[in-house]
Design brief:
The chain is of the alpha/beta class. The two termini are 35 Å apart.
C-alpha cells in the first residue's frame, strides 16, 4: 500500500464499487501516475477484470478514443474526464493518451470533441468530470469558476468537480447559448482516511434529466438536484449518513476537538445552499 505523497488502493475496493452498482469510475486525477505507467496499467487491468468501466485514463489511443456512453431511460449519456495536473507522476513522451490533461484540449478542442460526439453518436447528455481546484478550500477558486464556465460553453450539460477534499456549493451556470449547465464544484471526500471535520464529510447527489424528443432540439431540462450528506468515522472507517451521526451523538470528535453535531449539520446545509437556496439537502 502506498502512503503520502504516492497513493494506491486495494483491488477489493473496485469489487465493492461494483457491488454498489457503480456504473463508471473516473481515474483522471493528480495521483493517477503515482506508480508510473506500470501502476496505472495494473489499475486499469484490475478495473477491466472487475467489469467496471473507467474514464479519464487509458491503455491505448484506441481506448482513449472509445467514447463512454450509457443508455438510461431513453437517454444516451456520455462521460468525459480530465485533470488539470498529474502531480508527481508524468506521462512518458508519446504516451499522452495515458491520462487526459485539461490543458491539452482547453475549451476550443473540448467544444470540437463534444460537437463531434453529439453529431456522430447522437448523444443526449454530456457529463464532464474535472479534477481541479485547491485542496481544503470550502468555496471554488477563481480558476475553478473560469474552467467551469469554459467547459459549460464548450457544450457540457453537467460538470462534476473533485480534488478539494471538502464539499463546495453547487450551482447552475448559463452559457453563451442560453443553456443551463449544472456544476458540482466539489463533492468532497466520499470514502477517506483523511482526518479533519469537513474532510470527513462528503455527499452523494442525484439530478433529474429530461428531454422532449418531440421538439427536435438538444435542450435538456436538468433540475431537482438533491444531496445526501455523508460522514466517514475514523474509528472504523465506515461511511454513515451525517443525519444519522447527529441522531446518534450530540458531538463529533475530531483530532482537534469536539464539535456540536447538530451545529455542524446545519452549517453544512447552509453552506451548500450558498448559490442554490432551494437545494434539497439533508
Amino acid at each position: 500500500m502506498g502512503d503520502f505523497p504516492r497513493f494506491n488502493s486495494p483491488k477489493e475496493l473496485g469489487y465493492k464499487l461494483k457491488d454498489l452498482n457503480v456504473d463508471i469510475v473516473n481515474v483522471a486525477n493528480n495521483h493517477t501516475l503515482d506508480f508510473g505507467e506500470e501502476g496505472l496499467r495494473k489499475s486499469l487491468d484490475n478495473l477491466n477484470e472487475i467489469g467496471l468501466p473507467y474514464v479519464g485514463a487509458y491503455q491505448s489511443v484506441e481506448d482513449q478514443e472509445t467514447v463512454r456512453i450509457f443508455h438510461k431511460n431513453g437517454l444516451k449519456i456520455c462521460f468525459l474526464s480530465y485533470t488539470v495536473s498529474t502531480g508527481l507522476g508524468k506521462r512518458p513522451k508519446g504516451k499522452e493518451y495515458l491520462v487526459n490533461i485539461y490543458k491539452d484540449v482547453g475549451p476550443k478542442w473540448l467544444r470540437l470533441t463534444i460537437n463531434k460526439i453529439r453529431r456522430e453518436l447522437n448523444v443526449d447528455v454530456v457529463v464532464v468530470s474535472i479534477h481541479y481546484g485547491r485542496e481544503y478550500h470550502m468555496l471554488p477558486t477563481s480558476s475553478q469558476l473560469e474552467i467551469s464556465n469554459d467547459i459549460a460553453d464548450a457544450g457540457a450539460d453537467i460538470i462534476l468537480g473533485h480534488h478539494p477534499h471538502v464539499l463546495q456549493p453547487p450551482n447552475f451556470l448559463i452559457d453563451s447559448r442560453g443553456r443551463e449547465v449544472f456544476v458540482a464544484y466539489s463533492l468532497g471526500n466520499f470514502f477517506t482516511g483523511q482526518v479533519g471535520l469537513y474532510r470527513q464529510i462528503g455527499a452523494y447527489m442525484t439530478l433529474d434529466i429530461e428531454k422532449d424528443f418531440t421538439k427536435g432540439d438538444s435542450l435538456l431540462n436538468i433540475s431537482n438536484p438533491k444531496m445526501k450528506l455523508t460522514y466517514v468515522d475514523q474509528k472504523d472507517y465506515k461511511i454513515k449518513l451525517l443525519e444519522d451521526v447527529v441522531e446518534e451523538s450530540d458531538t463529533i470528535k475530531t483530532n482537534v476537538g469536539e464539535f456540536s453535531s447538530n451545529e455542524v449539520y446545519l452549517r453544512m446545509i447552509n453552506h451548500m445552499k450558498y448559490w442554490l437556496p432551494d437545494l434539497e439537502i439533508s
